[in-house]
Amino acid sequence: MGKTVLIVDDSASMRQIVSFALKDAGFDVIAAVDGKDALEKLNAIKTEMIITDLNMPNLNGIELIKQVRQTTGHKFTPIIMLTTESQESKKVEGRQAGASGWIVKPFTPDQLLGVVKKFIR
Amino acid sequence: MAGFEGFEDRHKEVFREEARELLSELEGSLLELEEDPENTELIERIFRAMHTIKGSGAMAGFDEIVSFTHELETAFDLVRDKKVPVTKELIGITLTSRDILRDMLEGTAGSSAGQAAQEIISNLKHIIPEFPCSGSKKVQPHGINEKALCLPGEEKALTYRIRFRPNQDIFKIGTNPSFLIDELRALGDCMVIAQIDSIPVLSEFDFEACYLYWDFILTTSHGVNAIKDVFIFVENSSELKIEVIDDGLSQSPDYKKIGEILLEKGDVSAEDLRKALRQRRNIGSIMVESGLVEQGKLTSALAEQQYIREKRKQFKEAEAAASVRVPSRKLDVLADLVGELVTLQARLNQFSLTENDSELVAIAEGVERLTDDLRENIMSVRLIPISTVFSKLKRVVRDLSSELGKEIELEIEGGETELDKSLIEKISDPLMHIIRNSIDHGIEPPAGREALGKPRKGTIILHVFHSGASVLIQVRDDGKGLDAEAIRTKAIDKGLIPPGVEIEGKDIYQLIFASGLSTANEVTKISGRGVGMDVVRKNIDALRGTVEVESWKGKGTCVTIRVPLTLAIIDGLLVKIADDHFVIPLSIVEECVELTRSETVGTNSRHIANVRGEIIPYIDLRDIFGIGGTPPEIEQIVITQTDGRKVGFLVDSVVGETQTVIKALGSTFKKVDWISGATILGDGTVALIIAASHIMKLWEEQGAQRTACKAE
């Protein structure tokens, strides 16, 4: 069985694009629509990696990262931020909150996998 | 990216669906905001909707929507930061934008949507003076270097020494260094040495910290950026040092001594190294025994030494196995024979055309194709990389600079450029001389440089590259540059230029190639005798090359040598004067223009042509070679670039391009330097190959005499 990745994004198409790419590469994917939803899913399902958008209603990405790092069992979980080129300052904030890496939209499936595979196999 | 297209298609519909929802949400929020303009929650929602449309739109390939939404987002970012107030006008414009976005999404409005978007953007800029002039800011994709991911580098394999010392908290940002090590390993031959000297005693051990750090020796052709990409997310928090330790060019199987490696890596101090060396024993074990260096670091240095030696040995063996050693004399003979063949083939071609026999023409064409291939192959066999002379140059720079108390670094670019073997042998001396000059006259002493605000260390850059049928070799230094005034004074002194004659810019610098001119105040062992640069000029001339100097006072000098790719065969332009043929080397030809009789009369026979507004002097070859008869109504000027100047050569007609084998004129004509050789044409007649720079000189001398005669 593949490792489980949680994709957190309020955009349905982004969720679909990321899950398709990861599923094609043999990962299991679960999706959450915002930070709050993500924390609930993390409690219920064993997750090896989190990919999250930053700009979301009900708990944004940065807050989510901070809270995940406080959650038992997710101290060392890799977290990748989905950013846009205009969010340079957010990237720094995210890193301070405990994010592992980032990928800038738009990206190709190969580029996404390149980043994911830095953290899990 | 072919896969990307299909990838977009399967997501386009989902994005449309989503964007429709977001757009209607946007409309609702905008209308609410009009009633309640201070509501930050609403502004945030509007901003987020735009941001999502932009981000997801980019992924689904809706570029038009993305760039337009980017501008809207910029505007609302200013609103969010309270730099711009919410006005009815702004809301009106944004609502129109929303409609345009819908049109773009459904693809109903065609190109008119783009036009409408442009209007909106200019309106926005009008009402928001703070709007940044981003223009059509292109959304930059992906945080990862695309080249590293998609294209296997075609660069040369280099060997790097990498030290990666992660932050002790690396696990806490979800990163496992072992994955990074695996990623690095995938780039090429890699040796990993873990360093364990930072691991504390058990009582102080934090189980969540990373105490290890690593030394890598990696041979990869992917380039340094691919290595940096491996560490992209941790480079800010970690210590990362990447150095090239082997460029694959070195022929010697020996590598640095252990002490040198440790010193370079900063693992030991120079003082400690000297102390250990005095004991004249195995240096590594001494240093470990006396606690100057940890065992791990010694292991790493030893491994590096071993690794590079192995690599170089392998490389040498591979080269030896794949090549045959042949005396170069044999190659010369072969090249000569091919040269004869080319001449004969040209005759065959010409003959076949006059015979009107299609069978013969076909054979002649076949022979031509084969001879071309053969010629190219034999030429490429004779080509060797110019880097073979560089080790000698490096040595000269090292020895000379320490002798003169200067600090100089020699940087080499394009060492892999290939040149004819005999050319390389002949270019080495002039090159050495130019570099000596740079070291002696160009680069200032370290203290002087510091006083001028320059880096202590001077740099000489040797840059070799192809340009058409020539190879350019540039020697550039960042020294004090040439002193134009001193050269002028000296030249007048030596009678090289008559006093009062104005010579400017480049022409002044060209004078340094005149014999007997040295501006050095005292003769040093290295230079200052005024012989040298003229010898350089003579040597380069003999190779049918040119040499140019450019200089910037206080900033440096650049000497450019241009030589043809090969010596035995040239690409030339065949021209005709009366019944005689001449060949002008194609490497210097810029263009051909027509000259009508009326123009000649108009310029009062001053031999000046006006080419698209540029004034170019030309030399009448009929005159130079003393050929009688009357020139045709319309003559041709072949414009060439010679020694940094444009000069035309006037001929009756231009026949066309030709590849010719150069034959020396023989000892009888040894002193004729304005002809660099001769060649036999297809019909058996002989054509002279002209040496442009010498003809120019000859013409100038004659010109000076003429003026002198007139003056009397």
- Helix/sheet category of chain A: alpha/beta
Number of helices of chain B: 23
Let me know the largest β-sheet of chain A: 5 strands, parallel
Shape of chain A: globular
Q: Uncertain spans of chain A, ≥5 residues at pLDDT below 50? A: none
Number of distinct helices of chain A:
5
Strand order of the biggest β-sheet of chain A: 2-1-3-4-5
Which architecture of the largest domain in chain B does the CATH hierarchy give at level 2? 2-Layer Sandwich
Quaternary organisation of the protein chains: heterodimer
> Can you give the mean pLDDT of chain B?
80
CATH topology of chain A, by name, is: Rossmann fold
Total E-strand runs of chain B: 21
The amount of beta strand of chain B, in percent, is 15-25%
- The total domain count of chain A is 1
- In CATH, the homologous superfamily of chain A goes by the name Response regulator
Q: Per CATH, what is the topology of the largest domain in chain B?
A: Heat Shock Protein 90
Given as residue ranges, the uncertain stretches of chain B (5+ residues, pLDDT < 50) are: 1-5, 135-154, 521-531
User: CATH top level of chain A?
Assistant: Alpha Beta
Describe this structure in words.
The complex is a heterodimer of chains A (121) and B (712). Chain A has 5 helices and 5 strands. Chain A has 121 residues and is an alpha/beta fold. Chain A has a 5-stranded parallel beta sheet, with helices on both faces. In chain A, strand 1 (4-8), helix 1 (12-24) and strand 2 form a beta-alpha-beta unit. In chain A, helix 1 (12-24) crosses helix 5 (109-116), helix 2 (35-44) runs parallel beside helix 3 (61-70) and helix 3 (61-70) runs parallel beside helix 4 (88-97). The termini of chain A are close together. Chain B is an alpha+beta fold and 712 residues long. In chain B, the strands form 5 sheets. Chain B has a 5-stranded mixed beta sheet. A 5-stranded mixed beta sheet of chain B has the order 19-12-13-21-20. Chain B has a 5-stranded mixed beta sheet with strand order 14-17-18-16-15. In chain B, helix 1 (2-35) packs antiparallel against helix 2 and helix 15 (390-403) packs parallel to helix 16 (421-442).
